[in-house]
Design brief:
79% of the residues lie in helices and 0% in strands. By secondary structure, the protein is an all-alpha fold. It has one domain (73-439): Na+/H+ antiporter like fold. 45% of the residues are buried. Helix 6 runs antiparallel to helix 7 and helix 7 (134-144) packs across helix 20 (397-446). The longest helix is centred in the C-terminal third of the chain and has 50 residues, at 397-446. The protein has helices spanning 6-28, 32-49, 55-67, 70-88, 92-97, 99-124, 134-144, 149-156, 163-191, 193-196, 207-238, 244-265, 269-280, 287-290, 295-320, 327-355, 365-371, 377-384, 387-391, 397-446.
């Protein structure tokens, strides 16, 4: 068996990340998320079809993914860095103005979408000759419902949209990711109670215990983020900006220490990272707090954001080689794409329609929020983490293969198709907004 040492593996990932980013900037010239997804897919296809020419390629990539736990790398390291870096760029004032919209979409929206997707998959899969128990359908609904902040934030940077709508989209993606992971872990504990060691058996799982677990993860994660974020911000205020290395080390300590503490306390690490990033971020604050972290701190985290994003999609490309594909699975995946989009529309339109009774939203809000709800690497990582249950003898490989294939195809469609067309949708929305403003001005002038 071909094996690489940890340092060699990290070196390989960094070299590939640099190469892919260069190819995208020089030739593809696509948004980084879309370009990297296409290049990662091309890498996996090259390895699969190039097996006849380079027989060691597939063995090497397969062994790499078996040797290193992709889910642990993502959840314990990469996700923390990516969420903190994303939240660091957010404007706290506009986030505060849209707090109720963000809160409802990140909670009610995720839960609604989870049950809509799970139920629809359960009843429609038999029409393509496949079957999943309802709990596994809900598991798929939980991992595919949260929008991916990495993909969404990369898309927003390249579009022209109002600050309020930008905050709704970005804020929801940051917070619903943390909520989505909690929902996924809760349903995972119900599906595999013996494996979690937390419930001691399915008979002990009640609505109260599920609500307690969910509440502890979410509220605990937010509170921990507030505490770490407040302490970190106060430390940064006392450090002169010329001591860049100390400021960077403080923020790194916050992220790495916060992630370890969240795991120890069994609270939501993703929500803690988002909250800490909002605390440290320099937008929408007093002058003293805006200058708490120097310019180079933000440059450092921008570098981390781009590098981690590239590495994430390379890891996804290598993981795809392990998936078992079949015609039935591909048909099911096509059906899942439609179901996920429809569920996203419903889970967005219901709360926004209700909120319109007390707040004014542009007509295009539901369309924009539906189509900009990109899924990404986090959903794929959650799906791939289920392979551990096969090793434990808790589920058959066919069940996990089906979930992974559906997840990957939904993510691929989301990033490539939705990602490439969202800019046009924003342009149409801006024209619609300008036309409405002109009409309103004309009416006022006429009266």
């Amino acid at each position: 068996m071909i094996q690489l040492e940890v340092l060699d593996f990290i070196t390989l990932l960094i070299v590939l990340a640099a190469f892919f980013l260069l190819i995208n900037v020089k030739f593809l010239k696509l948004p980084s998320t879309i370009g990297l997804m296409i290049l990662a897919l091309s890498l996996s296809l090259f390895i699969i079809f190039g097996e006849t020419l380079f027989r060691t390629l597939k063995d090497l990539s397969t062994n790499l993914m078996e040797q290193y736990n992709f889910s642990d790398v993502l959840f314990k390291v990469m996700l923390s860095f990516l969420l903190f870096a994303g939240a660091l760029q957010m404007d706290l004032r506009t986030i505060a103005k849209e707090k109720w919209t963000i809160l409802i979409l990140a909670t009610f929206g995720v839960l609604t979408s989870t049950f809509l997707v799970g139920t629809a998959i359960y009843f429609l899969l038999p029409y393509v000759g496949l079957h999943l128990d309802y709990i596994y359908c809900l598991l798929f609904g939980a991992l595919i419902s949260p929008t991916d902040p990495i993909a969404v934030l990369a898309m927003i940077k390249l579009t022209k949209v109002s600050k309020n709508l930008e905050s709704q989209i970005a804020g929801e993606s940051l917070f619903n990711d943390g909520v989505g992971v909690v929902v996924f872990l809760t349903i995972l504990g119900i599906a595999f109670p013996a494996a979690t060691g937390e419930h001691g058996g399915a008979e002990q799982i009640t609505a109260g215990s599920v609500a307690l677990l969910f509440g502890t993860e979410v509220i605990g994660g937010l509170l921990m983020g507030v505490v770490f974020g407040y302490i970190g911000l106060k430390l940064l205020v006392t450090i002169p900006n010329e001591f860049t290395e100390i400021e960077v080390l403080v923020t790194l300590s916050m992220v790495l220490g916060g992630a370890s503490m969240a795991e120890f306390l069994h609270v939501s690490g993703p929500l803690a990272m988002v909250t800490m990033g909002l605390f440290v971020g320099n937008k929408g604050r007093s002058k003293e707090l805006e200058e708490a972290a120097g310019e180079y701190v933000y440059k450092f985290w921008h570098l981390m954001d781009e590098a981690m994003n590239a590495i994430l999609f390379i890891l996804i490309g290598l993981q795809i080689i392990r998936i078992t594909w079949s015609i039935d699975f591909i048909v099911a995946a096509a059906m899942a794409i439609v179901i996920v989009l429809a569920s996203r529309f419903i889970s967005v339109s219901v709360p926004i329609s209700a909120l319109r009774l007390i707040k004014k939203y542009p007509k295009y809000t539901i369309r924009i929020l539906t189509w900009s709800g990109l899924r990404g690497g986090i959903s794929v990582a959650l799906a791939l983490s289920l392979y551990d249950k096969i090793k434990e003898g808790l589920v058959t490989p066919q069940i996990i293969d089906l979930i992974v294939v559906m997840t990957y195809c939904v993510v691929l469609f989301s990033i490539v198709v939705q990602g490439l067309t969202i800019k046009k949708l924003f342009a149409l929305a801006n024209k619609e907004s300008e036309a409405a403003s002109t009409a309103e001005t004309s009416e006022q002038a006429g009266s």
